[in-house]
Write a structure and sequence with these properties.
With about 150 residues, this protein is mainly alpha-helical. The chain is built from five helices and two strands. The chain has a two-stranded antiparallel sheet with strand order 1-2. The protein is elongated and about 60 Å long.
Length: about 150
């Protein structure tokens, strides 16, 4: 009986995988499709679209308004961060990105009463603070001398 159920399982798996284009994993394909649809919906002619209430804090839900200042500061700081090399620019921009995450965690810690949200916000703040220190300590490696 075990041999029959194993053969049946293998057959069903083969049938499921062959039903997908190229024999890929149907779950991964569905995730790729959804990601492509989401990306297409948010990007138009190379510009990421903003929410309908962007720039109008009176129309934004209270939850969004709580994060508006930290989001704006993060995006401005990331855009201004630069480096002479891809490595240096990456570090500069990621430091600002992480600083934004810390600022958002601070908002959640100050305003949320949900213990699980507060736990997650503190975890994010601790991890991002450590990573900022690690990135600030990074120094470009010097190319080997001939």
């Amino acid at each position: 009986m075990r041999l029959v159920s194993s053969a049946l399982a293998v057959g069903l798996l083969t049938l499921t995988l062959s039903a997908c284009e190229g024999g890929g994993d149907p779950v991964n394909q569905a995730l790729r499709d959804a990601s492509a649809e989401n990306h297409a919906a948010t990007v138009q002619e190379g510009v990421v679209s903003a929410p309908a209430h962007a720039g109008d804090n009176h129309a934004a839900p209270a939850g969004d308004q709580a994060f508006a200042a930290s989001e704006a500061a993060m995006h401005t700081s990331m855009a201004a961060a630069s480096g002479a090399t891809v490595d240096e620019a990456y570090i500069a921009k990621m430091i600002e990105h992480h600083r934004g995450a810390v600022a958002m965690a601070d908002v959640a810690l100050a305003q949320s009463r949900d213990p699980e949200i507060r736990r997650m916000a503190q975890t994010v703040k601790d991890a991002q603070t450590r990573e900022i220190a690690e990135m600030r300590a990074w120094r470009p490696s010097t190319p080997p001398t001939p």
